[in-house]
Structures are given as structure tokens and as C-alpha cells.
Design brief:
alpha/beta
């Protein structure tokens, strides 16, 4: 009877998890357009035919080298205003001169830089403006729609047309497999379908500050699609920022994902800017949701020995560790804040854990996850070689197979130690409230206010929303305010 109950409970929890996953996938973006919306201009030649007229192609300085190679070797060009999309809440476009285009190119993945763009393809927003050239062939000027030249023109008499939502919709429409992979990467974190790392959806811009989005449990970068659409159509934000995303398998332990985040951010910055002088190497704003906020905390704090002391009863110096063991311990438990981070925005982050992860859903869900080998093996080896080295809590974690994300999210001494680490940059909290209670007793349904609250925040905003508050209008408005404040600080 007990075994039947356990099987039924596991099946129930599996259904709950699958339902959560597919509720997120239900918002995948789909696009449609008439056949005549697909055009075939020759941008790689000095002359082209545009609307039946011969024109001279002029690539403006707004199209940097990183974008040009895809524009000149595209797989598809679509008239942006002809694209119909479903899945994004709002549509943003600028009326003006020219024809907005969406240029799609398969990702050849032939270089290290291309591995930081979606494997599903690279999409450019381009505006083609035909200008009469008295006595000569008309010019067809091509602009990057996301460049400040185009953005700033929106307030001028001769605005350059742009369609921001269609560009994003085409990216998202190709990304169904990425979004759906969040299930497999949660349950099988050692074998994710898409590589862990920092991803860009627009060509790298050396003059814009990255907004680094870090998703939460059972999620992927495409959970941000509505927020990115709302943010990256705002002229002031678009002029100063570019979106970056961290993708990681959410079934592995928080400390393992956090270590990968720190390494990948530094590697991405160095790859695109070896000299370290460009804006993205010196300035980054982090926006992190739920479990992603725990990863973000390790970017802006100095751990010293606090996290190690939460896991082990003995100091490192008392252990005769092999070089490989010491290296792994330092990788996970010891870190220093990243000077490039300007500020962090925490959204519904369980700084002190979530009771849901400690309950029956979390307990059985944890059993469904195939435990990540690296941290589990490390704990087993430490416990075997140094009996009694683990604290009682992590001793019990070790007996159950090692840490997973759900173990990491349950209230535990390690999270308490992480939450207590001073944050070295300005930070902000956006906290959901379902309206059942107010103030300290409120909750977003997954994370309580007491867990999401951190002392020392420059601002704390409570919004009427549940845990999934990424599309909440008040939350997005608050992020816009903070990003604008960051611009003002940098301009002083």
C-alpha cells in the first residue's frame, strides 16, 4: 500500500512539474506572413533592385562588422511590417522613412563568437531607406534598427522606421526547442540539450551596457521574451543597453550553476573584447528571477570562508586535500565580486529558500532529478576521506545522493550564509504579492516576503503578482525606472 502511494505521489508530482513546464511553453511565439513578404535583395553587391528600381547599396556605419557578415550572407529577408505574431503582449514599431526588414541567418557555429548566439539562428533588424540622388542612381541606405542613430531619429522630423517586435518574434519563433528543453535540463542536468553559457540575441555592440538576464528554476531565457520586448523598444533603454542571457540546466546545484555563470561571463567578455576596454567589459546590469538571483548574488559578493563553514565542520587548512579537490572547493565556495557589475535587480528571489522546495513536491521532485555528478561526487569523497567533515544538514544531503537545485532551494544553512554576504553594488528587489497577506506575511505563492527581502536594497517594490511576475506591467515599469537611474549615474 505504501509503495502504491509513493508511486502515485511521484506520478502526481511529475504531472505538476510537467504542467508547470508546459504552462511556460504555452506562451511560445508563433509568426505568419504572406509569401510576398519574403524578398531577395542582393545586399552583397554594389547595386540591387528595390521595388523594381535599380539602386546603389550603401551600408551605413550603424551596421558594425559583427552584424554585416550575417546581413551579406542571409538565408531569409522578411518585410517586418507584414509579420503577424502571437505570443508577445505588445507590438512596438516606429513610423518613419524606409522599410523595416527582419534578416534571418542560420548560425554556422564556425567560430567561438557564433557559439554565443542562438543555435537556432541569428536575426537582425534592418531598415532600408531609399534616397533620391539627383542625376545619379538612387541610394538604398541600410541601417541597424537597434543602433542609436535609428533610435534617436524617432524624436526628429525625419524618423527612420523600425519594427522591434517583429525582429524579436522571429528569434522566438525559432526557439521552441530551446524553451522546451528546460524540462530535460531540469531532470537531467548533466546532459543538457543546449550548452550552458552566455547568449546574445543581437550582434555584440561594444558601446552598450549588457542587461544580463538570469532565469529561474524550470525555465530558459525565453521566459524573458515579453519583458525584453517591452524593454528593448524603449528608446532610452535601446540606446544604452543590449540584452544578454545566461542559460543553464536548472536541475543542478546552485553553487555549480553560479560557478559556471562567473566563468562564462568573464570568458564572454574576453572573447568579444580581448583588450577589456569596451563598455560590456566594464559595465553590466543583472536582472535575475527566482533561483537565478542566488546565482547573481555570487557575482557581487565576497564569500571568504562563510559558505564553506556552512557545509563543513573543519577549516580547509585542517584537511590534506588533493589539488583537484582543493580546486573544486575553491571553484564552488570561494569567489569575489565582479567589478564590472554596476547593479543587480532581484525578482522574486528565495534568498532564504522556499518552503515549497522543502515539502513533498520538492522532496519527490528531487528524486526525479538525475543528480549532477560533480558536486555529488565531491561531497561523497569528502565524507569518505574525512568522516564527520560535513555538517549534519549536508551529511544528510550526501546520504540522499548529493545536492540538486531543489535541495539548494529549500531553507538551509548555505542559503542563510549566502543571503548574509554583503552585496558590493547597488541592488534592488521586486517582490510579488498575491494579496492574501500584506507586508512581512505576504507571499508570491512560492517565495515568502521574508525570504525575498534583503536589507540594504536601494529600492524594494511589491507588485500584485504571483511568482511568475516577468510580464507584470508594474515590475517592468520598475525595471525601466532602475535602468534609467543607472544611465543617469553613469552620465554624471
Amino acid at each position: 500500500m505504501n509503495s502504491q502511494f509513493t508511486i502515485l505521489t511521484r506520478q502526481l508530482v511529475s504531472c505538476v512539474l510537467v504542467a508547470l513546464l508546459f504552462s511556460g511553453c504555452a506562451h511560445l511565439v508563433k509568426i505568419s506572413y504572406p509569401p510576398e513578404a519574403v524578398i531577395h535583395p542582393r545586399f552583397d553587391q554594389p547595386f540591387a533592385t528595390w521595388n523594381g528600381q535599380r539602386v546603389r547599396v550603401m551600408l551605413t556605419s550603424s551596421l558594425r562588422e559583427e552584424a554585416l557578415k550575417y546581413l551579406l550572407n542571409y538565408d531569409q529577408v522578411i518585410l517586418a511590417d507584414a509579420i503577424q505574431e502571437k505570443g508577445l503582449r505588445h507590438e512596438y514599431r516606429t513610423v518613419g522613412e524606409g522599410t523595416p526588414l527582419v534578416v534571418y541567418c542560420r548560425n554556422p557555429e564556425s567560430s567561438l563568437k557564433e557559439r554565443h548566439y542562438p543555435t537556432t539562428g541569428i536575426t537582425l533588424g534592418v531598415t532600408a531607406v531609399k534616397e533620391e540622388n539627383p542625376g545619379e542612381i538612387p541610394l538604398l541606405k541600410l541601417y541597424d534598427s537597434f543602433d542609436p542613430v535609428v533610435v534617436e531619429s524617432a524624436s526628429e522630423a525625419k524618423a527612420i522606421a523600425a519594427n522591434y517586435t517583429s525582429t524579436l518574434a522571429v528569434i522566438d519563433s525559432h526557439a521552441a526547442k530551446v524553451a522546451e528543453s528546460s524540462a530535460a535540463s531540469f531532470l537531467r542536468p548533466d546532459d543538457p540539450r543546449f550548452a550552458t553559457g552566455i547568449y546574445l540575441i543581437h550582434p555584440y555592440d561594444p558601446n552598450k551596457t549588457p542587461i544580463l538576464f538570469i532565469h529561474g528554476l524550470l525555465s530558459s531565457p525565453f521566459s524573458w521574451q515579453n519583458m525584453v520586448n517591452d524593454l528593448c523598444s524603449d528608446p532610452r533603454i535601446l540606446e544604452h543597453y543590449q540584452p544578454w542571457f545566461f542559460l543553464y540546466p536548472t536541475g543542478q546545484s546552485v553553487l555549480e550553476s553560479a560557478a559556471q555563470l562567473r566563468q562564462d561571463l568573464q570568458a564572454t567578455q574576453k572573447l568579444f573584447d580581448p583588450s577589456g576596454t569596451a563598455v560590456p567589459s566594464r559595465h553590466v546590469v543583472v536582472v535575475a528571477h527566482s533561483m537565478g538571483g542566488l546565482l547573481a548574488h555570487t557575482l557581487v559578493s565576497d564569500s571568504e570562508h562563510a559558505l564553506w563553514n556552512a557545509v563543513a565542520n573543519k577549516p580547509l587548512d585542517a584537511l590534506s586535500l588533493r589539488p583537484a579537490e582543493r580546486s573544486m572547493i575553491f571553484q564552488y565556495f570561494f569567489f569575489r565580486h565582479q567589478p564590472c557589475i554596476d547593479r543587480v535587480i532581484f525578482m522574486a528571489v528565495p534568498h532564504r529558500g522556499s518552503r515549497l522546495a522543502a515539502g513533498i513536491v520538492g522532496s519527490i521532485g528531487d528524486r526525479l532529478i538525475r543528480h549532477s555528478r560533480t558536486p555529488a561526487e565531491m561531497l561523497r569523497e569528502l565524507a569518505s576521506e574525512y568522516p564527520g567533515v560535513l555538517t549534519p544538514y549536508f551529511g544528510s544531503v550526501n546520504v540522499r545522493g548529493g545536492p540538486t537545485s531543489l535541495f539548494s532551494l529549500a531553507p538551509n544553512p548555505l542559503l542563510d550564509s549566502l543571503a548574509a554576504l554583503p552585496i558590493r553594488v547597488p541592488f534592488h528587489s521586486i517582490i510579488g504579492n498575491r494579496g492574501i497577506n500584506d507586508g512581512a506575511e505576504s507571499s508570491d505563492g512560492v517565495v515568502s516576503y521574508r525570504s525575498a527581502h534583503l536589507e540594504g536594497a536601494e529600492s524594494e517594490k511589491s507588485v500584485p503578482a504571483g511568482h511568475d511576475l516577468l510580464s507584470n506591467a508594474a515590475a517592468i515599469a520598475e525595471i525601466k525606472r532602475i535602468l534609467d537611474e543607472n544611465i543617469q549615474v553613469s552620465e554624471r
